[in-house]
Amino acid sequence: MSTLRQLIGRFKLQLRGKNHVVGWHMTAEEVIAFFLRQRKTVLTFYGYSGMGYEDEKAMLAIVQKVLSGFSPETTLVNSGATSVGIGAIYPLAKSMGFTTTGIVTNLALEYPGGISDAVDHICFVKDNQWGGNLPHSDILSPTSKAMVECSDILVGIGGGGITEAEMLAGKAQGKPVYYFPADMNHARAISHAKKMGLPPPESFRSSNPDLFKK
């Protein structure tokens, strides 16, 4: 059942009216069916979210180079629907003529201000976590399952545990997977570690960058 904050989030997004919400509490199977109906190649970008990028311009340069190899008429540009971190790809993709999509847990409804204005179609997935594997399991959460199953090509630019889990799943399914190392925002990462009572990060990159070939 929706929490009060999620209901408020839905109301705020409806008032804004800049996104087409495909569904508020979708199953992974419903999301997959929606993407299949679009009959387009789904190019999904993975990376840091709230932590952001140390060099966002470099990240966007990679995205622009990747997108230049695809046609806006036959390709959907997909990511996690939020505006921060890797979500900066959305305005760029729109400026290049692409239709944009987002797949995200319905937990994001509690933070409607974080949803990108530049996402054309958003699928909110019924999930009690933000993605990655289910606890004590190698099974993907509903959000991550939908993200991987809907993607034809997976492109990672940095990213943490959720990115790693989803890209490994895509690789295991035989899908094209491309990875570009990138640093998360240093100051933000240090501040987050301090708030959590942890020592400063020893590395500002993903935990296992050698898993994927550039």
Shape: globular
* Main sheet characteristics: 7 strands, parallel
End-to-end separation = 42 Å
Rg computed from alpha carbons, rounded to a whole number of angstroms: 16 Å
Provide the helix percentage: 25-40%
Alpha-beta classification: alpha/beta
Mean pLDDT: 91
Order of helices and strands: HEHEHEHEEHEHEH
CATH architecture: 3-Layer(aba) Sandwich
Widest sheet, order of strands: 1-5-4-3-2-6-7
Q: Which stretches are low in confidence, meaning pLDDT under 50 for 5 or more residues running?
A: none
Q: What is shown here, in short?
A:
The chain is α/β, with parallel strands linked by helices and 214 residues long.
Q: Could you explain the architecture of this structure?
A:
This protein is an alpha/beta fold and 214 residues long. It has one domain: Rossmann fold, CATH 3.40.50.450. The chain has seven helices and seven strands. The chain has helices spanning 4-16, 28-38, 56-67, 89-95, 142-150, 161-172, 186-195, and strands at 20-26, 41-47, 75-79, 99-105, 121-125, 153-157, 177-180. The protein has a seven-stranded parallel beta sheet with strand order 1-5-4-3-2-6-7, sandwiched between helices. The mean pLDDT is 91.
